[in-house]
């Protein structure tokens, strides 16, 4: 770990001011950044601790929620409004990490956690994300955990978050504040696909701070869920995860939200599934066709071909469960 | 015939009474402590955080160490730039092969009395032998400063062609000189011919991945030099031999190195002598200051070996009556040219079943990698996976219950050594286990039991582990005039209950209350103790304490003289009881130790002895066995496997402490769950580098993976083992993976022969 300065500003403006220094990074719970510093992957010169900033949940006039980015994962998951209005979000959060880590981790930090690709973590390996232009040792290496959708020859890493998969499905909005002022991004526009610049993971501008997340009013999300498939019962990253909500009216799918985790460089909003399902009568066969449509663009690697079938099956199982009225 | 073979043959004709170490033990030691579920005596200390582990020993002026690891598998260091690190804040020095003290190479296991994981010289030249080998050690005032400076050392290499692909290296596999003293090839009859002629046969290949040690306590050594003597506060399961080996490496007289290791946070075979203790002592010598080296989790993966991968063929041929006509178990493991751990996967097949013909063969493929090492039941853990899976396949093929098939193969004598069994009750373990587990509820047709999305299945397998007792274990017993007993031996407490069980034994042996016994261990200045390996420490220590106690009691009887109620009695006529000596049958004839010692004007009496030669294991076939039962659910959608319940039914001789024993059995089974379902070291065959050196990416079972685990035992004393007890530390992991794989087959009809059984293999 390299030497760094540490400040804990009292408000967003002060934090943004501090983060203007070269090599500064915002610090949430540190559950990912500090690990990466220990491994020498991240070497910030200054840490700006933003855990003292807004962590409240406020009601929006239309029934949505605005959530301060410094809230802990535990507090967010446990909030009664979140649990009843957006159960998929609570389920996604508690499917992640361990209780101790969730107590430390923050919402803002969760959005910016970095891939767990083994070659990204190891200084001795080639990684275009860690060292642009050096190559990718995962392409022909251990890539069982890696992306099947939207990857490039430069990078096949996945985004590790569970929480973000739910946010993608819920059409959340990300509120940002930087030296140039405030702005908002649709959640889906926050993370990037790797392309030729896998080192650029989000659309954040230098020094920009995530201040809050807004969840829109979404009555259908009351019947929503999150299913995570992994290599042990707890404390493992998703091989495939599915966040979904389903609204059925008069035997027809009126609206549907599906997002996938563990399959791409970003939380993957399954727009194809959604488009193929709207207006259809729910059945396993319909769900199967829709999931196959989404996965038709999958490009599996040496070790992760099973993810294609696993994603198909998990989508079908989750939608069938929701259609059967079992949230 | 080997020397061992000749010894076995000769001993067969020698009566038990004349063979030291084989006297049935022990009617005189029945005072109610041994066999009781006494809670661990060190438990309170640990819960309160008062037990000091190797990395917690405070020494004035301590420097902290960090290791720089090589990033190639084979070649030489071309350039080594340490200036930036040396100038970094808090750095005392950077040690490399250029300035390291000149040291002798350690002896590896199997060489002389060596115990090192590898016999490579430690930081003596510019050669690189594996990816991750230490190339520099940074000493600094704080751990953070050392870690930071380690990142500033820059190294370039001249790479040479390295063999790091096990699949490729198998082409050049060869027989090792021996497999722990046993022949690498063992043939009885013509097994291939018998297989070809058999009415029923299976012939399949099973593979197991490399695995790493993940004891909760990181490997650590806090070292200090004073007056040319070295003190090492180590986390080790081999105190006495580590002290001896370090003395040789540093060219010191035996006794000039003291190793202390009062508490070890898990060993499992991995807490031996590796390069880090040598590096810490060398750097401390160079710096002239005490040094603490606590390896990071990643450094443990790079410097401490684990279980080697295996490729195993098992072929079984049975006749119409189910008799086993042919048993073939052959395969290859990865090893290096600088160690000797051939992962004895054929050992179970040597002893378990009555086969009319047999071919057992072990090969090793030499890789440029960190030396592999012992890991809980080396050989038997992975060997039983292959053998016991194949038996399940054959039973299914034949339409016979797999327990019944094994019952038909129960041997009258050891199938390869032909020695009689000292005590073998596997059939009873199966019967008891089957009744408790509800085996009769199993549907023998796979894939028919379902609970919602989950396919359910039951599986069974045999576990086995040899009885070992190593020679040369010493113990000292001291009796004070106030009736206090102190037993001293350089043994190990790694959390398994050594101190508790040995105190129970000494209390019974000396006829005193448990609270009057102190058990001293964990210090090489004490009489040379048993290593905590081969599940042998308890038996070895008990034998040594028995010898010392016998000598002590003889002294006490002599001191009692003729003015005592014991006057005129011979040692064979007295027993230790009620805090003194008494006549074996005449309860009125008794005198307390205090009374005897005070009359003799002695403050204390003590005796030090070496345990009897362990000839019992040469005369008899001595093995523990178990019947392992698993019930699993396999998710029909995702392929996820969850073990729903598990039962281990053990035949391990007498159980000395049911509470600590149950924990040992359960711990072994939990490690077996990891072997079966989730653990694998990702060793990149391109670079020879371990890519998942962390508890996040190397998947040991978490709480949610561990179901209710039931354990039971026959508790039938082994008449040839000290206190009737065979070892129990390792057997729990054996048979577990096969029981689970067999249950997965019963649930799904899918046979997974490649561990771990991850969900992608069941989609």
TrEMBL record, chain A:
One of its GO terms (molecular function) is FAD binding. Residues 1-220 form the FAD-binding PCMH-type domain. The keyword Flavoprotein applies. Keywords: FAD, Flavoprotein. SMART domains: CO_deh_flav_C (SM01092). It comes from the Bacteria. Coiled coil: none annotated. This is Oxidoreductase. The lineage of its organism: Bacteria, Pseudomonadati, Pseudomonadota, Alphaproteobacteria, Hyphomicrobiales.
TrEMBL record, chain B:
Coiled coil: none annotated. It comes from the Bacteria. Gene3D superfamilies: Aldehyde oxidase/xanthine dehydrogenase, a/b hammerhead (3.90.1170.50), Aldehyde oxidase/xanthine dehydrogenase, molybdopterin binding domain (3.30.365.10). Residues 48-161 form the Aldehyde oxidase/xanthine dehydrogenase a/b hammerhead domain. This is Dehydrogenase. SUPFAM superfamilies: CO dehydrogenase molybdoprotein N-domain-like, Molybdenum cofactor-binding domain. PANTHER family: ALDEHYDE OXIDASE 1-RELATED, XANTHINE DEHYDROGENASE. It comes from Reyranella soli.
């Amino acid at each position: 770990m390299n030497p760094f300065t540490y400040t804990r500003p009292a408000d967003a403006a002060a934090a943004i001011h501090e983060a203007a220094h070269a090599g500064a990074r915002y610090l949430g719970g540190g559950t990912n950044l500090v690990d990466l510093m220990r491994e020498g992957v991240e070497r910030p010169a200054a840490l700006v601790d933003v855990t003292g900033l807004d962590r409240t949940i406020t009601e929006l006039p239309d029934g949505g929620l605005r959530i301060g980015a410094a809230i802990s994962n535990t507090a967010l998951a446990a909030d009664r409004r979140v649990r009843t209005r957006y159960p998929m979000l609570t389920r996604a959060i508690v499917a992640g990490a361990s209780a101790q880590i969730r107590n430390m981790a923050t919402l803002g930090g969760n959005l910016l956690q970095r891939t767990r690709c083994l070659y990204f973590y190891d200084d001795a390996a080639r990684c275009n994300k860690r060292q642009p232009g050096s190559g990718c040792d995962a392409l022909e290496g251990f890539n069982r955990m890696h992306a099947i959708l939207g990857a490039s020859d430069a990078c096949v890493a996945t985004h590790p978050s569970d929480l973000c998969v739910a946010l993608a499905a819920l059409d959340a909005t990300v509120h940002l504040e930087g030296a140039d002022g405030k702005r908002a991004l649709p959640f889906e526009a926050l993370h990037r696909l790797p392309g030729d610049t896998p080192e650029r993971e989000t659309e954040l501008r230098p020094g920009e701070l995530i201040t809050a997340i807004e969840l829109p009013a979404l009555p259908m999300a009351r019947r929503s869920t999150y299913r995570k498939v992994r290599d042990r019962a707890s404390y493992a990253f998703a091989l495939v995860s599915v966040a979904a909500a389903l609204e059925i009216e008069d035997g027809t799918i009126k609206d549907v939200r599906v997002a996938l985790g563990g399959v791409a460089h970003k939380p993957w909003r399954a727009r194809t599934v959604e488009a193929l399902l709207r207006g259809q009568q729910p059945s396993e066969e319909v769900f199967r066709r829709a999931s196959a449509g989404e996965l038709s663009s999958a490009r599996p690697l040496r070790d992760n071909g099973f993810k294609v079938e696993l994603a198909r099956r998990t989508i079908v199982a989750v939608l069938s469960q929701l259609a059967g009225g079992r949230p | 015939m080997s020397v061992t073979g000749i010894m076995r043959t000769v001993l067969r004709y020698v009566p038990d009474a004349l063979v030291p170490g084989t006297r049935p033990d022990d009617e005189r030691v029945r005072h109610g402590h041994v066999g009781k579920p006494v809670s661990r005596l060190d438990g309170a200390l640990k819960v309160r955080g008062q037990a000091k582990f190797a990395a917690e020993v405070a020494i004035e002026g301590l420097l902290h160490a960090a290791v720089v690891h090589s990033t190639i598998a084979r070649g030489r260091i071309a350039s080594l730039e340490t200036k930036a690190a040396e100038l970094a804040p808090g750095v005392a020095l950077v040690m490399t092969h250029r300035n390291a003290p000149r040291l002798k190479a350690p002896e590896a296991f199997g060489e002389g009395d060596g115990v090192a994981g590898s016999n490579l010289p430690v930081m003596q030249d510019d050669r690189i032998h594996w990816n991750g080998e230490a190339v520099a050690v940074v000493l600094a005032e704080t751990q953070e400063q050392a870690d930071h400076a380690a990142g500033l050392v820059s190294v370039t290499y001249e790479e040479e062609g390295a063999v790091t692909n096990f699949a490729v290296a198998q082409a050049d596999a060869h027989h090792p000189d021996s497999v722990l003293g046993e022949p690498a090839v063992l043939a009885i009859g013509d097994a291939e011919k018998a297989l070809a002629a058999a009415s029923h046969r299976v012939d399949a290949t099973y593979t197991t991945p490399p695995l790493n040690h993940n004891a909760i306590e990181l490997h650590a050594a806090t070292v200090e030099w004073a007056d040319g003597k070295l003190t090492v506060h180590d986390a080790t399961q081999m105190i006495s031999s580590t002290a001896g080996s370090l003395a040789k490496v540093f060219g010191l007289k035996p006794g000039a190195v003291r190793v202390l290791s009062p508490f070890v946070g898990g060993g499992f075979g991995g807490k031996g002598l590796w390069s880090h203790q040598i590096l810490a002592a060398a750097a401390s010598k160079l710096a002239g200051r005490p040094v603490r080296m606590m390896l990071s989790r990643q450094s443990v993966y790079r410097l401490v070996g684990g279980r080697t991968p295996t490729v195993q063929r098992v072929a079984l041929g049975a006749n119409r009556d189910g008799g086993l006509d042919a048993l073939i178990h052959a395969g290859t493991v990865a090893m290096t040219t600088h160690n000797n751990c051939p992962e004895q996967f054929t050992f179970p097949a040597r002893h378990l079943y009555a086969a009319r013909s047999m071919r057992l063969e072990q090969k090793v493929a030499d890789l440029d990698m960190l030396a592999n090492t012992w890991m809980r039941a080396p050989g038997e853990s992975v060997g039983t996976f292959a053998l016991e899976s194949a038996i399940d396949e054959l039973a299914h093929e034949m339409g016979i219950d797999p327990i019944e098939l094994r019952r038909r193969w129960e041997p009258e004598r050891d199938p390869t050594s032909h020695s009689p069994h000292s005590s073998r009750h596997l059939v009873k373990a199966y019967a008891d286990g089957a009744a408790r587990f509800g085996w009769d509820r199993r549907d023998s047709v796979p894939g028919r039991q379902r609970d919602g999305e989950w396919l359910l299945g039951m599986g069974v397998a045999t576990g086995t582990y040899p009885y070992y007792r190593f020679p040369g274990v010493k113990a000292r017993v001291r009796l004070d005039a106030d009736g206090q007993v102190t037993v001293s031996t350089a043994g190990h407490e790694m959390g398994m209950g050594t101190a508790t069980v040995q105190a129970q034994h000494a209390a019974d042996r000396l006829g005193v209350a448990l609270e009057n016994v102190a058990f001293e261990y964990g210090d090489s200045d004490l009489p040379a103790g048993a290593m905590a390996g081969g599940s042998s420490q308890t038996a070895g220590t008990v034998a040594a304490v028995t010898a010392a106690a016998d000598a002590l009691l003889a002294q006490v009887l002599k001191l009692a003289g003729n003015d005592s109620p014991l006057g005129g009695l011979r040692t064979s006529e007295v027993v230790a009881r009620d805090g003194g000596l008494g006549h074996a049958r005449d309860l009125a004839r008794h005198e307390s130790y205090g009374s005897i010692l005070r009359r003799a004007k002695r403050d204390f009496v003590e005796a030090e002895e070496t345990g009897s030669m362990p000839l019992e294991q040469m005369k008899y076939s001595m093995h523990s066995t178990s019947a392992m039962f698993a019930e699993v659910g396999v998710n029909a959608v995702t392929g996820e496997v969850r073990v729903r319940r598990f039962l281990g039914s053990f035949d391990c001789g007498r159980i000395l402490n049911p509470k600590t024993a149950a924990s040992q059995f359960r711990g072994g089974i939990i490690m077996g769950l990891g072997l079966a379902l989730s653990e694998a070291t990702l060793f990149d065959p391109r670079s020879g580098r371990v890519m998942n050196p962390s508890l996040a990416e190397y998947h040991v079972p978490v709480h949610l993976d561990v179901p209710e685990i039931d354990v039971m035992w026959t508790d039938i004393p082994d008449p040839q083992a000290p206190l009737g007890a065979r070892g129990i530390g390792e057997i729990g992991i054996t048979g577990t993976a096969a029981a689970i794989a067999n249950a997965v087959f019963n649930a799904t009809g899918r046979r997974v022969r490649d561990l771990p059984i991850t969900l992608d293999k069941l989609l």
